[in-house]
Write a structure and sequence with these properties.
Distance between the termini: 10 Å
Number of domains: 1
Shape: flat
Largest sheet: none
Amino acid sequence: MTTPLSSMAWVIVGSFIGSLGAVGLKAGAKRLQLNVVSLMTNWRLAAGVTGYLISAVFFIQGVRHGELSVLYPMVSLGYLWTMVWSKLFFGEAVTRGKVAAIFLILCGCGLIGLGNR
């Protein structure tokens, strides 16, 4: 069984959306107070959870017709997006170590994808 490019695209888009979900969780957590009202009215937190749920739908669509051993590692592309969003939205540092780690993750995803052919 080979993994179609469409399945890879579904998973990559899902990882992108999931990384935005992580941004929502962080933004919501920064404003969260430990009470039920705060939890129920925190739209940023709700947006983060929604982002993760939507990304799961994309992932499910992707794995329907592809190999899990090829597609699941592609979820790690979310680390790349998350580093970009962390810098953009929260002013977090992008260090050489982080860039090197992302580079290695991308190399690994590429090698797994090549193993599909």
